[in-house]
Specification:
By secondary structure, the protein is of the alpha/beta class. The chain has 11 helices and 5 strands, in the order ααβααβαβαααβαβαα.
């Protein structure tokens, strides 16, 4: 899967030359070369944004319920760096599914980790307490009821979603990250924020059936969630992959080829309000850049 055969060949040649010049270094250099050839042990964890639920083709090795795609950002990352990928991402997962089985035939995601793991990525937290993604659907239903006028979702729910994220979701993400670090103490752990779903001010009713006044409300809600992910990463020493700036202008209201997230209506994904293949690719590229692995 590696894209660097020429580089590896050149590296091997250079190491062989150094071994003849400095014999004492030879064992260590040979060990490094072997590890590089074997590939980094990489475990991908997380929810449907990690699994790329709705993007075809599906991963034949994944449980059907997880709706995992072979075009998700973990597969893109693994191919780019020649890693040995163990992908346990699963649609609808929350932080509780790290420690417990999400489905009867889906083990806890933490079970995939070991002391040999060297890289872990994830997108998680959006499903906790059914706050974030469910709020999008609830606000969509409210918007349909008012034909896109007013701010029915904000009027009904107020600060309740934000309060839940700050008091419940944030500590849950922080605990999940600490659990990961205990299981894989030698791994670099990266957690991604969520790419923008709604634009800043003007929506696209009815493609995204959110009332005019609820567009900035949902945008603020997502900012609070991403900030909770960032704070949890900072508290645990994990790497935060900030998608706020790079995904701006690529929300679900944009045209095909520009949007990274598909809308409720007239989208290309059977799983609505989720990243498309372009979004997963861009999430991978941003992660590689933040990790310095490009």
């Amino acid at each position: 899967m590696s894209r660097r055969p020429a580089l590896l060949a050149a590296t091997t040649t250079a190491l062989a030359l150094l071994a003849t010049l400095v014999p004492a270094w030879a064992p260590a250099l040979a060990e490094t070369t072997t590890a590089e050839r074997a590939g980094v042990r990489y475990v991908a964890m997380g929810d449907s944004y990690s699994a790329a639920s709705g993007v075809l083709p599906l991963d034949p090795a994944a449980p059907v319920q997880c709706l995992r795609s072979i075009r998700n950002y973990p597969h893109v990352i693994a191919e780019a760096i020649g890693a040995r990928l163990t992908d346990v991402t699963c649609g609808a997962a929350d932080t509780g599914d790290y420690r417990g089985s999400q489905y009867d035939d889906v083990p806890p995601q933490l079970d995939a980790l070991s002391r040999r793991t060297r890289l872990v990525t994830m997108t998680i937290g959006g499903n906790d307490s059914s706050v974030f993604l469910n709020s999008i659907l609830q606000c969509g239903a409210a918007g349909l009821a008012t034909l896109g006028q007013g701010s029915p979702c904000k009027d009904e729910y107020g600060d309740s979603f934000v309060t839940t994220i700050r008091t419940t979701t944030f500590p849950a993400i922080r605990r999940a990250l600490r659990d990961v670090q205990r299981r894989a103490p030698r791994a670099e752990v990266a957690i991604l924020g969520y790419p923008w779903i709604m634009p800043k001010r003007v929506g696209c009713y009815p493609l995204m059936p959110v009332a005019r006044g609820d567009v900035p409300y949902l945008r603020t809600l997502q900012r609070v969630l991403n900030n909770a992910v960032k704070r949890a990463a900072r508290a645990t020493g994990a790497t935060y992959v900030n998608l706020n700036r790079v995904s701006d202008g690529h929300d679900a209201c944009q045209l095909p080829g520009e949007r990274w997230v598909e809308p409720v209506l007239a989208g290309t994904n059977p799983v609505i309000v989720h990243p498309n293949a372009l979004g997963e690719e861009q999430m991978a590229q941003r992660t590689l850049a933040v990790l310095g692995r490009q």
